[in-house]
Amino acid sequence: MTIGELLKEYRQSKGLTQKQFADGIVSTSYYSKVEKNEHRITAEDLIDLLEHNNISLWSFFKKLALNADFEHYQHLSIEEEAIDAYYHSDKKRLELLKQQVDGSKIPNKNELSLSISGWIECMKSDDEEPDLELREKLKEQIFDLPSIDLNKLNLFCNFMEFYTLDSNFFTAKQAINKYVDSKETDIQEALLSIITNLLYMSIKDDNYSYTDYLLQSARKIPLKPCLFLQKELISFYQNLIVYHFDKKQIYLENCKVITQSIKLAGMEEYGKALNGVIAKLVK
């Protein structure tokens, strides 16, 4: 069974027209050709399509036979499922996914299993003992610099809390040097998120050795509407850093304006977290 055939099966089981099923994701004419296997849908559009219709990524790919379409998308589907489980604090779901991966014949399953273990490790509370061996394996195998790609950039961004500022900067600098001139939005977003995390860690550790380089690198990435949040966060941390050195109130006020705009946009908890960063700095 192909991707298109299985999408058609799900659509018909829900009693939806092609227009209803693909609404806002791809055009009806394009989607019609996907079902007929005349067009191949991108991974990004496929994931959006499944989410739009409340179809589990893992369930979808389990129904596919082990053919070329399956191998092309399966690895990505499990990663997305794991990330979704993490952000919903669903540890049991992550553990089940890991068991399924470990017992499967998925290409590169060891790397995928390792990354899921990393998500589980991220969910540990402060009083739980960290798995230092796992964290080192993540660093050695997933963040292998010569082959770092978008997937590894995203994993690195989410697992940075495991490592020191100096260690993270070394990895990030290699990634920035390789990709800072990339025109791909996904790459740009990942780099800005990594820079944002490093700026936060710099402020938290009271170590400003790397901030000039990080801010200069962020400025090389042009503003796009889809990068607006990352750019706002860069501006937030830039103002905090400048405040650290000259203590002018205007920089704190700039930070508060940014946090307020983020809260007004619907990210209330994120805005509160940023206000917490301000409070720690001005104690």
From TrEMBL:
Cross-referenced PROSITE patterns: HTH_CROC1 (PS50943)
GO MF annotation list: DNA binding
Keywords: Plasmid
Name of one Pfam family that matches: HTH_3
SMART domains in UniProt: HTH_XRE
Domain annotation HTH cro/C1-type: ranges: 7-60
InterPro entries referenced in this protein's UniProt entry, alphabetically: Cro/C1-type_HTH (IPR001387), HTH-type_regulator_Rgg (IPR053163), Lambda_DNA-bd_dom_sf (IPR010982), Transcription_activator_Rgg_C (IPR010057)
Top-level taxon of origin: Bacteria
PANTHER family per the UniProt record, alphabetical: TRANSCRIPTIONAL REGULATOR-RELATED (PTHR37038)
Record-given protein name: Transcriptional activator, Rgg/GadR/MutR family domain-containing protein
The organism of origin for this protein: Lactobacillus helveticus (Lactobacillus suntoryeus)
Lineage, uppermost ranks: Bacteria, Bacillati, Bacillota, Bacilli, Lactobacillales
